[in-house]
């Protein structure tokens, strides 16, 4: 849309708050075409999804805040050798975030175990709220992935694809730098997983780079909104049909941004290989088959965070 001489790109907004979406063929097809276009053009969109009541969302964020307010030594009890899992303090490279990752966040007893590490006496309301939120957001993630496979004509792989993934949950805190000048929360990066669904408190800060190079500041249009981002693994699996956008978080002012991210990741050891149907003369194979966790190790062991899948296994 042209506003005077300035062009302002906005992320597509897609409405998922539709009763019985999966049973309503006309609505399903309509939303599916919007999802397809958004993933191809931006690799990202705002999803409006009203299945998480606002008071539950608010309560969960207060509990996430309480978690980050625990003593450092308590948070550091949550350890993992895997990147993005467990507790991580300030991110390096000047990034001002603190994060906590939970593997298999959709598996209740695993979440309970983590909660007991943080609060030995338990935290029933947090585990209940988190379970509900993850159930709903993972439904949204599955709807989106189903639409995407159907729209690419590869729905015959749907069951295999759905069975091949796990969910990593990640809480992130960005403390406002107390200045009007924006500071880097998280540096420019692409997600390395399949699909990411982000739920934020009211404080904006996410920016997504359009294919034109322009940065889009995500100003969510409803309190029921989530941001959906495609990762490198989906880009590879679809042989480049969907875009995986570079994005970052910029933070200013004195309010704290909290994000709850649901990251769909391939199961350990799974080989990612584009289906034959998506490799054609017009779309030659982009990447050799690879294991995502090994790609993550490559990214982690090399300098900087901008090493790409192309460097790792590009054809
Ligand atoms: O906080 C956000 O909205 C973005 C987080 C992010 O990009 C990530 O964790 O990969
Ligand atoms: Fe990201």
TrEMBL record:
Molecular function GO labels: metal ion binding; oxidoreductase activity
Signal peptide residues on this chain, from the entry's feature table: none
Pfam families: 2OG-FeII_Oxy (PF03171), DIOX_N (PF14226)
Domain Fe2OG dioxygenase: 164-266
Keywords, ordered alphabetically: Iron, Metal-binding, Oxidoreductase
Cited Gene3D superfamilies: B-lactam Antibiotic, Isopenicillin N Synthase, Chain
Record keyword Magnesium present: no
Family statement: Belongs to the iron/ascorbate-dependent oxidoreductase family.
PANTHER family, A to Z: 2-OXOGLUTARATE (2OG) AND FE(II)-DEPENDENT OXYGENASE SUPERFAMILY PROTEIN-RELATED
Protein name according to UniProt: Fe2OG dioxygenase domain-containing protein
